[in-house]
Amino acid sequence: MYDRPRHAATTGRPPAPTRTLHRRREAPKGPVRRFLRRVNVPAGVAATIWLIIVAVPLYYIVINSLRNSDAYLEEGALRMPSDLTLENYGRVLDLGFATFLLNSLIVTTATVVLVLALALPAAYAIVRGTSRPVRWMFSALLLGLAVPAQAVIVPIYLIITRLHLYDAPTAIVLPTVAFALPISVLVLTSTLRDIPNELYEAMTVEGAGSVRVFRNLVFPMARPGLVTIGIFSGLSGWNGFLFPLVLTQSPERRVLPLGLWNFQNQYGTDVPGLLAAVVLSAVPVLVLYLFGRRYLLRGIAAGFGR
Question: What pTM was estimated for this model as a whole?
Answer without folding.
Answer: 0.75
